[in-house]
Amino acid sequence: MRTAFGEKFDVPACYLNTASVGVPTTTTANAVAAAVGRWAAGLDEPPVFDEPVRAARQGFADLIGVPVERVASGASVSQLVASIAAGVPDGTRVLVAEGEFTSVSFPFAAQAGRGVTVTAAPLAELPHRAPDFDLVAVAVAQSADGAVVDLDGLRASGTRVLLDVSQSLGWLPTRLDWADWVVGAAYKWLLAVRGGAWLSVRPEAADWTLPVAANWYAGDNPWTTVYDLPLRLAPDARAYSLAPVWLAQVGAAVALPWLAGLDLDAVRAHNVGLADALLAELGLPPRGSAIVAIAGEGVEQALAEAGVRCAMRAGKARLSFHLYSDASDLDRVVTALTSAKGRITESI
């Protein structure tokens, strides 16, 4: 058991795989377990979950700095991005990063029959090339290696921007009210249950956002839109919501407001401090990200033998540092990689 930022985590030593699956606080885990217990005893009714859905939406809104009326609740990033991909005009030119996570790029590529084109470019080139496109869709921190996009450059480009914060929200403090769309998943850095995701829609971007999954819970009043026509969707971003995955929302209702209440500058300093310290130990330059990607002969085996929990992505060992990571984790990784240090070829 570890204690960090005022909460307890039942996390194993050297768990550096938050970029794949975040470990919840014991408070979040207990809330979900209690909900499972109520389910097993037949004690709940569907309206009971309206409050967790509301609290989770508010938590996401607070984390990205937007009014809650802009936020829709869904189940996955790709499902929410599809609302945008289906809503863009025929012939829209979309720019993405090379190696972008496909939940961001595939929904647009699937619109090729309408003349929508998707072009991939190096991450660093996106702000410069953005004015030649109608929309930029990109993860704030790249899944494979944690590289962070130039947000100021994108904002200044004048092109519509969709940001995926699944690998950044929870450790990188950013106010994103300027972005046309912001989407993120619950189960990584937000330390909640898979099955929750959120989409923020700037009012000026609603013309390119289509409620392709229109359903009763997207209604103006969900408990009066369960039957019959006409279509009567919510007047705000809830029109793009899915009916909730109940247990996922219970966890998110605890995790997201708690994270939003933390000093996220301190969280960033903690996470990035450990990641950059690892790079320094390996003789590599700092990158300012909570995610480190290490390539080299024998790296995967050395980390596995040392009991380091991480992931292999794009041929590199991806290590991700979060609230519950500490100096002992860093020491173990450094020791594990000592024998492979001479064969480490890159960190990006």
TrEMBL record:
It comes from the Bacteria. Keywords: Aminotransferase, Transferase. GO terms for molecular function: transaminase activity. InterPro entries: PyrdxlP-dep_Trfase (IPR015424), PyrdxlP-dep_Trfase_major (IPR015421), PyrdxlP-dep_Trfase_small (IPR015422). Gene3D superfamilies: Aspartate Aminotransferase, domain 1, Type I PLP-dependent aspartate aminotransferase-like (Major domain). This is Aminotransferase. It comes from Actinokineospora soli.
